[in-house]
Design a protein that fits this description.
Helices cover 19% and strands 26% of the residues. The protein is of the alpha+beta class and 114 residues long. It has one domain. Strands 3-4-2-1-6-5 form a 6-stranded antiparallel β-sheet, covered by helices on one side. Strand 5 and strand 6 form a beta hairpin. It is globular.
């Protein structure tokens, strides 16, 4: 499974999504953390019954500026062992793409097993 995370600046005049910044992720743990922010709205996406493709989440959120948004999102990615965001100049956005992340810290993970 390939994990993708994107952060972009949202142009409020041309976007139906609320918030200054848009976030896209394919990781449920990242989605949970973004969803818990007070100033975040989730774009409702309906997947068909028995959908076998890769699920994703899109959010609109507010940060003070782009530097603060990158710093906050990178902190979440670092805590979950993902690579930090890198600028993609073609799409004018920041992205973090990596393959299987076997180091994701899940609540069901057995730590210190005896």
């Amino acid at each position: 499974m390939r994990y993708e995370h994107y952060l972009w600046s949202n142009h409020l005049s041309t976007s139906a999504m609320r918030g200054k910044f848009g976030i896209y992720t394919t990781c449920i743990e990242v989605a949970k953390r973004i969803r818990s922010r007070n100033s975040t709205t989730e774009v409702q996406i309906i997947f068909p019954y028995a959908f076998n493709g890769q699920r994703f989440w899109i959010f609109g959120t507010d940060y003070y500026d782009l530097k603060t948004a990158r710093k906050s999102f990178n902190r979440i990615l670092r805590e979950l062992s993902y690579t930090e965001l890198k600028k993609n100049t073609q799409n004018n956005e920041y992205e973090s793409i990596m393959g299987v992340n076997s180091r994701v810290k899940n609540e069901g993970e057995v730590a210190n097993a005896k």
